[in-house]
Amino acid sequence: xxxxxxxxxxxxxxxxxxxxxxASANNLFAKVIYxxxxxxxxxxxxxxxxxxLPTWYEVRVNEKGYLGRRGGADFIIGINGQTFRQDFDMxxxxxxxLYDSSKELPESFQRDDITxxxxxxxxxxxxxxxxxxxxxxxxxxxxVGALAxxxxxxxxxxxxxxxxxxxxxxxLAEPNIKALEIGYxxxxxxxxxxCSLSIRPSEAVGNRIIIDGNSAVGLGAIYAGATVAGWYxxxxxxxxxxxxxxxxxxxxxxPENGKKNYAVIQAEDELAAxxxxxxxxxxxxxxxxxxxxxxxSLMSEFLGLAYFAxxxxxxxxxxxxxxxxxxxxxxxxxxxxxxxxxxxGDTRNVLxxxxxxxxxxxxxxxxxxxADRLQTPVIVLSDLDLGMNxxxxxxxxxxxxxxxxxxxxxxxxxxxxxxxxxxxxxDVDKDGICYRTLxxxxxxxxxxxxxxxxxxxxxGYTEESSAYxxxxxxxxxxxxxxxxxxxxPEIVIRDETSKLGMVFFGSSxxxxxxxxxxxxxxxxxxxxxxxxxxxxxxxxxxxxxxxEIVFIIEQNRDSQMKILISGECQVSPGKIVSVxxxxxxxxxxxxxxNRIHSTLLTCGKDFLSSKTVVPExxx
Amino acid sequence: xxxxxxxFRHPEAQKNKLGYTRKAYEGAISTLCxxxxxxxxxxxxxxxxxxxxxxxxxIAKLSGIGCSSKTPxxxxxxxxGFNSVHGRMPSVATGANMANRDxxxxxxxxxxxxxxxxxxxFTHVVRRNLNMVYVVMNNGCYGLTKGQDxxxxxxxxxxxxxxxxxxxxIDLCELAIQLGAGFVARSFSGDKxxxxxIFKAAIxxxxxxxxxxxxxxxxxxxxPTSTKSYSYVREHIEATGTFDFIxxxxxxxxxxxxxxxxxxxxxxxxxxNLFKREDKEVITSKRDAIASxxxxxxxxxxxxxxxxxxxxxxxxxxxxxxTDTPLNQLNEADLCPGxxxxxxxxxxxx
Lengths: 619, 350
Prior knowledge:
Chain A is α/β, with parallel strands linked by helices.
């Protein structure tokens, strides 16, 4: 058997039982690798369950910095009886399988192409610790100790991380360190030279931080000055508002009197959640809500009101696998169309598409400026993979000179100085955005009734066709203003003569960039465009038009981004090829390259260089 | 409906403490049916805010959808209004109130808007004890869609169409008492003498003040066989007691019969004098309030007046511990932790 021998480039997978305390041990493992300077991307693959069902934690270690899911596992820690067989069989040939050898491996578990490493986790813990709860929890730390030996990490970096984690409760650090040492010593004595995977300290992480997208969104809302949050718990967006509240407790409580400079309301449902955000936005506080697919469906009626009555509101959609309840703990990018055109009648909403936690932070902050400027809902479209998993990204920065753009809001003095008659929906500046007033501003001027019924320029109720049409057309004019204000796509031209383009967005970015590099190594040069927002700018149309074949990478079944682009841009039919993936696990570079190779083969050799080697499976 | 209202006002029309005449509190001409109970309620709202000397622009009026929800256009034209979506006024009011705790919030809804499509939002805004006046203009039917029964129509009651209501009716006041509203009252659109002091007390109350006003639908639900008709209500009305409302810092000059008045001081210092129907009842007891309502139902009476009062209730801001400055007035200096804090945060992740 040839063992897999690799340094700083492998996938290690932990198979655990949900609720057994494995998460903190597994996080510790990933954090240690990060602190050694080696790029790492951990992913939780978890069930919709609190306790008892199988859960996996997959850690990709990659010196080159590829952070998308790779697929396959080189090393599996199999300590969940329910999935033991599946986990054992899944180890790649040449790989490693670590199990709790307190019980013998059943005879049917025979593979001569992998290295099996037994560590009696239960027995070791039982002989060292008397508290049953502690025994269960520390079993997880024992295997981290064994890994510290097997992967050449050494004890010290892990001990340092434990001490850091328990800096406030040093007493808790002691048993953890003890468990770590037990595992480390056992592996050293019983499995020397068993494992040819190793971690070597590196500089590859650089200055980057590691954080989940939902925390970054919550912090972005704090920095943007959001004060009112209405929400209803739903996976995977729950941690957005929880993070907001956690940061608010840290940064938004008056040191003098302990009072809060924010209000978080856990509503009775998603209808109320966005109603609260809209009420807050109408009354001049920066307000938001966060939800996932089912919540978007419920919020659609209110989104139409905010669109038509022109009320600023920020909505964060952390997408999960639909339709209906779908797979609530698995990822997808499948709310694109429903968000872009949410609500009945002619409606369209501004979308922002972050691709890493830094952009989650920045785009959430920008969303509040855009919503206030455009007086309309702005939706930040994240997803479960981006939101709930830790990702490496550049550190957060904030320009202290930055001022919030509160948009066109008239104060009492403005109202006194206006010579013409003020109208809430008068397009004075011809940019489609009108001047609004807040309740309580002026004793005599500026009051009006906000309504979802048709209204004229002075906010008066009307059923006059021409007034209705004028209003709808003017809002469409505002959409053109939005086009100028939203972030432009990130376009990379690798080869001016290339006929191939690739379009991707959000959390598909990691796998897409890795796929581009792999294709390039194989002499396929592909230009790329990462879309950051809807409405699309001319750059988006131009990029598509300059290429003969454009691959759109997206994580849904129905090619929603392709449909959106095709509907919004003049695109020749047949030019766009969808690369879709929708099984709930994050897309991989291999899925993308396979699809591109097979398309290019069917399209003819024109697109393939003489140096291109077509993968065997496809040729 | 009338199409015009004379602009003329008596030159010596009475002014309130702010120097405003009643006109400053009026709105556009109503487009509801002539004789609609809702118009009387609108008029009582105008009178109440005028007499209370609340600055009109410091009031925010919010509503859902339906005949009742149209009325905010017919009063307080100097106040901002929000005619939102069906059954969702409470959530919009919650957000608005969170954004600016200094305004007076008046929510107007109907029996369809509250007891059916908006039941969830109604119950939860009451639980939150949002500082607002929540008025239901209750006619037992859906007027705008031509008279279907609503969830507050009494079982057995007959509408214009003649078919008796077959389902149990929802008593919004009983629900509001159970759910923790600090102020619950029921009145009748045809009894302005009672309605105005109720509204005034509701405005002075801190927390959610719920007022259910029976308001006959002259077009679809005013047959004498209907329990929401003018004639039925007039025949079966029973007040919990007479009372008057003494706004803040005014001398009590009214004389009370037999010295039975019980003064209750509200949060802002104003006083309600209650003349109880029977001595044994305690206005601040939830149990008594619900028992009275149930007793009245058995006797086929409609109990009106202030049904329950907790003068010390905590509103949403008290519960949350929000700062005294309205949140919509905070700026970058109050809200943004700045780059130094952010760099420390980055470091904490390493």
